[in-house]
L-lactate dehydrogenase complex protein LldF (Motilibacter rhizosphaerae), 493 residues
Amino acid sequence: MSTYLGMPTAPRGVGNLRGEEGFPAAARTALADPQLRRNLGHATRTIRAKRASVVAEVPDWQELRAAGAAIKDDVLARLPELLVQLEEQVTARGGTVHWARDAAEANAIVTRLVQATGADEVVKVKSMATQEIGLNEALEAAGIAAWETDLAELIVQLGHDKPSHILVPAIHRNRAEIREIFLREMGKVGRPAPEGLTDEPRALAEAARLHLRRKFLSARVAVSGANFAVADSGTLAVVESEGNGRMCLTLPQTLITVMGIEKLVPTWQDLEVFLQLLPRSSTGERMNPYTSLWTGVTPGDGPQEFHLVLLDNGRTATLADPEGRAALRCIRCSACLNVCPVYERTGGHAYGSVYPGPIGAVLSPQLTGVEDNATLPYASTLCGACFDACPVAIDIPTMLVHLRNRVTEAKEAHGPLPGAEATAMRAAAFAMSDRRRWTLALRSAKLGRLLGRDGRIAAVPPPLTRWTRTRDLPVPPPESFRDWWVREHGGRS
């Protein structure tokens, strides 16, 4: 048992959870790409419609959401004991459990395990945890090739790109772009794409199938994540739509699973709830075409060596925050991304983390520390659509406000000079605290009408320029409410 489990430790090697630039700068770049916006708009509208249809079929959907939230909260309240139970069950069934404090430790563990087999390549099931820690890059540095087998992940890998969506990593690519990537890159790393390849989905999927079949049949080691782990039996679960996961989980001799410590459910009965919530919220399906479950090692059937790497990487620090820990309920369905007006216009790359969209805006800053991702809590309009869509009822808008407060406190703690926002609030408090000052401020605001055109102010003088750089400011009315009241009812303003 890890001695640090449950203690709020500061992550050291956080992996791919922050970008090189803040969200505002990255978002401006994305907004300037009309093709990206068309791709995102079409894809998110399609997924939203499918999800809405299958969710409407379930009469007790709100009760299922409440059950999912309650189960996850119970897991977080009992996390140490449930993790010990999981370790005991996995070990009893022939597996080996490893504990990783952060991304660096997890990468070192997996690299060492692969090297011990003598293999120089692995096949991978789609995994957010391994993306989070940057496992592919760590394996490459050790001379080990990691082949993504999920179709969308394969597109991203062959395109030397980064994922931009939790469920559909290549959502920012259209069919024509995918065809060009396959024709240009497949032959460099394996079986080439067929000559005359078209951009029809069936043809692209067949090209990927033929390319990957050789990888599946030759690989001796597979790496996976886990959607869920059942504590009382040591069972791991992966759900997917293509069958690539099933191939990775059954053909290789050695299987290494990297799992965030929050992915637990206590019992099989609890798993039943999430196998109803997840497919409807993610792919808009009643159930996933492939639900793979494995428990330890079965002699003569499947991998004969199984390793489970339990990953912290900032999760215990998140657990220590009563107002932020609900982010650990997340089951990575991506429903919040598909309804978010900010994500639909900027895409996932603008967030700089492998967790984009609303959940990334609350999860990434907590895993890394808010100072390292200070702009993400502001990547939201606080419209609340994410909360309505979340299958485990994470109140993301309220959490965003909480994290914005933490960002402000962190900024103020670094020096005696307040930030621009704090200065503006203090100025407003000074004006509002005296009737005469407030009346004068309201009347002075009328000067803004001189800057307006067509009912809006497109630019204001510094230091307020940053506000109107991304927003239109309404022109002040010709008469304030206070002046109207005096005119209509008499008395002083």
Observations:
- The chain has three domains: 23-315, 323-413, 435-489.
- Residues 18 and 185 are 28 Å apart (CA to CA).
